[in-house]
Description:
The chain is mainly alpha-helical. It has a domain at 306-457: Serine Threonine Protein Phosphatase 5, Tetratricopeptide repeat, CATH 1.25.40.10. 68% of the residues lie in helices and 1% in strands. It contains 29 helices and two strands. It has helices spanning 3-22, 52-55, 78-88, 91-98, 102-115, 122-131, 138-144, 149-161, 165-179, 183-228, 234-269, 275-300, 307-316, 322-331, 336-349, 352-363, 370-382, 386-399, 403-415, 419-432, 434-443, 459-466, 472-480, 492-510, 541-546, 555-582, 586-590, 594-610, 625-655; strands at 517-518, 525-526. A two-stranded antiparallel ribbon has the order 1-2. The radius of gyration is 33 Å and the shape is elongated.
Amino acid sequence: MTDGRRFAALAAVWVFVLGLGLAGPWPGAGPARADDPAPAPDAAPAEPAAGALFTDPGAFVVPPAWRAGGSAAPGAGAARGAASRSIHRTALERLWLEAADPEARVAKAEGVARQLGVASYDAAGRALLLATPDGSAAEQAARVAHGLPYAQGALASARLRGGNVIGAGTALLAGFAALDRHLEASLWLRAHLFRAVAFACAWGGFAFLLVAGASSLRRAAHDVGDVLSDEMPSWQRLLLVGALVLLPASFGQGAFGLALGLLGLGLAAGDPKQRPALIAAAVACWLGAQPLLGAASRALAAFDADPVALAAWSVESDAAHPGELARLAAAASDDALARRALAVHARRTGDLALADERYAALVDGDAVDPALLNNAGNVRFARGRLDEAIELYQDAAAQERSAVLFFNLAQAYGSDIRSREQDLALARAQSLDRSLVGELTGFEPSFETGLAVDLPTPPGVLRARLLDAPSAPALASALRDGFAPGALGRSALVMALALAAVVAASLLAARGHVPARWCRQCGARCCPRCDDPPEALSVCRDCARTVQRKDGVDAGRQGARRVEVRERARRLLPLWIAASLVLPAVGALRGRRPLLALAGALGFALAVGASPLLPALVPDPLAAGLPGRAALGLVAGLGVAAHLASVGLSRSGRRS
């Protein structure tokens, strides 16, 4: 294929790509809209939107039933409001409100929360921390809300201020361990981690394409001029190539359009050894702008996904208000999660007959897990139906090896005067988690009828419901507008087709073409069409004969040439080192290690994406706290390490 035909093929591909970009809008590309009807003038105030949990942390510092006025409708009497609140209060809430001594209240709340399966009494922990900004109540908050990363982070800070470094590290590790188990913290961290990785892939790949394309610009400008006209000045050649590169971006495709132009420039006119890295960078851009950003948006939109799941989470954290309980009751006829949450609430309010009835229906259903069987067994145990409780415990233990399950089984055996079985079950529980069994045994004297511990609903059950938000695609589109605002970025398939078309056309245009080069030693041009054919591909004729000690060249001339080349390298060394540290991929590309350069660019972008340089998508809802910020800081540190490693390895490669 002649040079003219290659140029025509490349131009045809640009027309095709631009046609895709201008043909929008694509199906499903428009933002989601929700035209909610306005409430009637005399209607009761609406509940806060579920998404307000992220933007208004004060909305769930304490259970709404604790607040002045409770949930009574406007105009209702004070007695009616108090009655409404008292009906829905759980045993844990009543204990917290009635206990006078703070230390005794925390100690009793620990045991009751453990018994009722409240993995973390978040409302009480947040209230304690917000009431004592100096951190004096951090120990108490971490005890009553031990599964809340925010409380563990506050405890770590308080211990560090007191000089207890080991204790601070222990609390911080406990906060790390709780990040995935706590629903709100896990969703917040998941959204920001996916955003950081998406930013790294999209903008790190773009940075590599930018640096690689800039290094090929002079070569491409010279070669295009040779194809069109030998008399074309250098500045006109540069303007022509620059216009071609900027063409997709000029039609509203944003940074992704510029990435398309740079990709084509690098593949058609760049070093052939860079082509695998260029294609990998294009794939990284697609991954960051499409699936990874979609995952971040699903986590971000989770709190607007499922009102029933949100109400169930409020029940799990012992912070449900009457409106949420009414929502669960309305959905209970066809939603197993709502029925489960109502059973949990009935157990915690002390209505064992209702709880037993609801758990019995759930156990006979399809969605049965060990936690459900254990909690149903606890209700039977509390009602004195020991044989049925033991059977449920055994069924649960057959599905999952849990210290809590075997501890409850030992309690039931003890109440049934079966000492041998009790000892065996307790030994089994101690073999699984001796410290937990010791902690539960310490709580046991506080419960006259025996301690049977509920298990919380597995976080995955709630998380699976919340990660399917209908607003996630529109949110992903809004987040993607900063990188790919045009129609090419609306669809993963269209974006992939545009990248594939540019790759195919650029490789076709470069087929059989010998590009101009510049000498690596002195910077002189080496063009097979305009200059004498060089004796080596990477250096000019003079450097090949003098610096590389070719025979037949005067020794004095060789020495002078070597001194000149070394002096030039010495002058440029500080500039290259500074550029390698500040600009991603520069050092490794100069060292002719393109894949290492791509890794460095991705690491640099990851450090930026996980650092405070980017504003948070949403405020931390008093859930992740210091452990969440520290986790993002560790990710940023890994990105910095990857960037510095690429710079160091590229320098060592050049020295070797």
